[in-house]
Structures are given as structure tokens and as C-alpha cells.
């Protein structure tokens, strides 16, 4: 092969890589093919071709490309890793697991390989081994929110709810706007009987993703359980058995419960009032106070924002003087909300 062919193959490989980065997978594939027509042992072009084919959901062809690349460069961890992903997509789980293990032989300090191996083990129903794989990934990259989230999912399947809750907390610590992590945190809390935390978690999930119907249903379940626990003390009737014709009845019940310090039960009443009258700003404001008193600053701010949207001057002045909200006074979001 002459120097000109080598240079031309390198150019097409470069173009293919640029298209791959831009998610233009058809053009990436076309350029990798041109590179390989000029230089059939260009293993990086085979890898790139496999990546483009995988992104086009042509996983069998992608697998063939990775195999070709690995015949030229057998110790390429990247190739074994992506080969494993292709095998997983083809439901060849054991082959995929072996391929992940080969990738780790050559690069045992790659958190992404340990993480994706864990995902495969979840698909295989090997949840305890999946947790171990995520643990290895997190030792190498402890701030990876997605690894904490998937570790939590595996622990949920093992019914290790306390550990799952802690994993979702870490995921949320690094990515507080992950609606799925908040939702699954609610599932874990609900399974442990921590209904206050479950309600708060489902509520936060719905703020981030309002159209998530399963979060609405799970929150109702948690609210009913929470209300049932306090029914004797609070003389409160479960939502599912109560008429809801008048939102003020529910609102006034919430006010009475909040005065007794039953903040989670009060939130349940305000939620019901808002289902009947979604524009009832005072219910949003009172919910903000209850969440603040429970220590859920983000949910307090979310509800205060809704109240301010309806009556900006009134609720900004109230918020500045209301000691129930003192825990959020120093928050940047609070300052921004008050300043408008």
C-alpha cells in the first residue's frame, strides 16, 4: 500500500469520526467504509464503523465490525467493551458478559465498563453481582449519578430498601433534577413504610416530570397509607373514601392539621384541594410552609413558586415574614423568587 492510500484512508477515518461525534451516523458509516476500502487493516476504522452501525441499531453488523477490529488489535479494551454492548443488544448475554470481562482484563480501571457490565447483569437477573459491578465502577468514579441510580435499581430488586434509598440519595446528590431517581427513591421509601419521605419524593419527581402517571398513582398510595397511620389521632378520613366536592373543606382540614404539627397529613389535604381547584394559590403557599417545616427545601420552593405565580406581591411579602419558611431564606432560589 502506498503512502497516498494511507493518507487518504486516514482522512476518511477523520471524517467518519467527526460525523460520529455529531451523531450523523449514516455519513460516519459511509466514510469509515471508504477508509476500509483503502486500508482493510485500519482497526480504528473498523471500531468506528461498529459504533456507527450500533447507533443505527444494526447490531449484528456492528458485532462483525468489532470482531474484524479485534483480529487486528486483540488487546483493545474499547473494542471488547463495545462488542459486549452489541452482544447484549442481540440478547447473547453470556457472550456479552465474557466480552466485558475481556475488556476489563486490558483496562480494569475503566468505570464505564464496570457500569455497563452491571446493567447487563441486571438484565440477566443477577442483581447481587450487578451491585458488585456498580461498586467497582463507583470506586473509580464516585460522583457518577447514573451508577448510583442503577445500583439503587439493583438493590430494589433485592428488596434491600435501606441500601437502595441511600443509593438514590447519592444519585440525587450529584443530579438533583433526575425525576427517575426521585421516583425510585419514593418506591424505596414506600416499601420501608417511610410514607412522608415517599410522598415528598414522588412530589419532587412530578415537579420535574409532570406527565409521569405512575408517580401520580404511587403518591396517592403513599398519601393514603400516611393518612391511615394518623387516622385515629388526626380524625382524618382516607382520601379514597371521602367526598371531594368542596376544596375548602380539604383546605381547612389541612390548616387544622398543620396547626397540630401533622405537616405530612396537611400536605395530603392541600393536594386534594388542589386536585379540585388547581389555581388555589393559598394551598400552594401552605404546602410550601409544611414542606419547609419537614426539611424538604426544594419542594417548599417549588410550591412557593407556584403561589407567587398567581399573586406575586402578596406571597413574596408573606414569605419574607413567615418563620415557617426560615429554612429556605438563605437559598439562592428563594432570593431569586423574591426579587422576581
Describe the structure.
With 340 residues, the protein is mostly helical. Residues 230-245 have low confidence and may be disordered. It has helices spanning 3-21, 25-38, 43-55, 59-72, 77-89, 93-106, 111-123, 127-140, 145-157, 161-174, 179-191, 195-208, 213-229, 231-234, 247-259, 263-276, 281-294, 297-310, 312-321, 332-339. The chain is built from 20 helices and no strands.
List keywords for this structure.
single chain, 340 residues, mainly alpha, 20 helices, 77% helix
Helices and strands, with pairings:
Blueprint: H1 3-21, H2 25-38, H3 43-55, H4 59-72, H5 77-89, H6 93-106, H7 111-123, H8 127-140, H9 145-157, H10 161-174, H11 179-191, H12 195-208, H13 213-229, H14 231-234, H15 247-259, H16 263-276, H17 281-294, H18 297-310, H19 312-321, H20 332-339
Helix pairs in contact: 1-2, 1-3, 2-3, 3-4, 3-5, 4-5, 5-6, 6-7, 7-8, 7-9, 8-9, 9-10, 9-11, 10-11, 11-12, 11-13, 12-13, 15-16, 16-17, 17-18, 18-19
The SSE string, one letter per element, is HHHHHHHHHHHHHHHHHHHH
Biggest pleated sheet:
none
Instruction: Provide the β-strand percentage band.
Output: under 5%
Number of helices: 20
Poorly predicted regions are: 230-245
Secondary structure class reads mainly alpha
- Which percent bin holds the helix content? over 70%
Gyration radius from CA atoms, angstroms: 27 Å
SS elements, strand count: 0
Amino acid at each position: 500500500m502506498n503512502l497516498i492510500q494511507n493518507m487518504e484512508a486516514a482522512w476518511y477515518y477523520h471524517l467518519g469520526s467527526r460525523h460520529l461525534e455529531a451523531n450523523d451516523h449514516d455519513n460516519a458509516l459511509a466514510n469509515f467504509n471508504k477508509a476500509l476500502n483503502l486500508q482493510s487493516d485500519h482497526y480504528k476504522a473498523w471500531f468506528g464503523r461498529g459504533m456507527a452501525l450500533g447507533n443505527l441499531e444494526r447490531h449484528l453488523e456492528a458485532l462483525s465490525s468489532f470482531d474484524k477490529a479485534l483480529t487486528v488489535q486483540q488487546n483493545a479494551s474499547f473494542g471488547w467493551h463495545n462488542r459486549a454492548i452489541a452482544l447484549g443488544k442481540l440478547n447473547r448475554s453470556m457472550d456479552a458478559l465474557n466480552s466485558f470481562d475481556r475488556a476489563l482484563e486490558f483496562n480494569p480501571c475503566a468505570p464505564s465498563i464496570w457500569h455497563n457490565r452491571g446493567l447487563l447483569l441486571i438484565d440477566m437477573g443477577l442483581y447481587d453481582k450487578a451491585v458488585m459491578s456498580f461498586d467497582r465502577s463507583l470506586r473509580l468514579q464516585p460522583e457518577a449519578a447514573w451508577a448510583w441510580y442503577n445500583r439503587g435499581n439493583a438493590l430494589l430488586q433485592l428488596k434491600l430498601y435501606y441500601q437502595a434509598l441511600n443509593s438514590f440519595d447519592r444519585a440525587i446528590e450529584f443530579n438533583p433534577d433526575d425525576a427517575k431517581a426521585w421516583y425510585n427513591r419514593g418506591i424505596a421509601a414506600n416499601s420501608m413504610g417511610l410514607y412522608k419521605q415517599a410522598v415528598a419524593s414522588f412530589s419532587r419527581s412530578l415537579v420535574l416530570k409532570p406527565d409521569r402517571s405512575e408517580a401520580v398513582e404511587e403518591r396517592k398510595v403513599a398519601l393514603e397509607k400516611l393518612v391511615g397511620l394518623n387516622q385515629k389521632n388526626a380524625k382524618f378520613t382516607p382520601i379514597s373514601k371521602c367526598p371531594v366536592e368542596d376544596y375548602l373543606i380539604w383546605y381547612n382540614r389541612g390548616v387544622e392539621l398543620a396547626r397540630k404539627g401533622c405537616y405530612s397529613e396537611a400536605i395530603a389535604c392541600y393536594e386534594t384541594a388542589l386536585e379540585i381547584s388547581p389555581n388555589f394559590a393559598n394551598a400552594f403557599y401552605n404546602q410550601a410552609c409544611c414542606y419547609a417545616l419537614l426539611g424538604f427545601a426544594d419542594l417548599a420552593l417549588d410550591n412557593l413558586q407556584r403561589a407567587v405565580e398567581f399573586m406575586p406581591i402578596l406571597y413574596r411579602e408573606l414569605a419574607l415574614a413567615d418563620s415557617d419558611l426560615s429554612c429556605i431564606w438563605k437559598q439562592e432560589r428563594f432570593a431569586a423568587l423574591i426579587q422576581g
